[in-house]
Amino acid sequence: MFTSCGNNDSSKDATVTAENEDDAARNFIRSVLDQDFEKARTLIVNDSLNNAFLNLTERSFEKMGKQDKYNYKNANIQNYNTRAINDSTIIVYYANSFKKKDDSLKLVKQNGQWLVDLKYTFPSTKDVITQ
Asked: Which of 72, 92, 118, 122 could form a disulfide linkage to 53, CB 3.0–4.6 angstroms apart?
């Protein structure tokens, strides 16, 4: 999927409040592309499995070469589309301009806040993205 930068000022802005599901999804995807996992943690369902998945993603970035890290940070979110399952669950389909691989996220609304639930993955197809 998708080493925080050494900027001390960014820790002040680590918590992100999303106004809606689109904000939550975009903020999460962008924070992972930017390798700001502290910020990404504020946008996921806080349970052991979600934290383990995000930790695994963070470790994969730590092992990555500098050029790939740079390419992710400079990637744009593409093919962004959502599908509502119900009033508290949506699926977000997207790709990034670096890997150009279709991917998806599940967002759930908990206590009035939209959060990414990494425990679920949904295969993305061109038919779903173009709906």
From this structure: 118
Q: How many CB atoms lie within 10 A of CB 12?
A: 8
- For 95-127, give one letter per residue: b (16+ CB within 10 A) or e: bbebeeebbbbbbbbeeeebbbbbeeeeebeee
* pLDDT at residue 131 is higher than 50: no
Element (H, E) at 20: none
CATH code: domain of residue 66: 3.10.450.100
Domain that holds residue 88: 8-129
Per-residue pLDDT, 16: 60
3 domain-assigned? no
Mean pLDDT to the nearest integer, 24-53: 96
Average pLDDT of the residues in 73-102: 94
Closest CA to 29 of 110, 120, 91, 105: 105
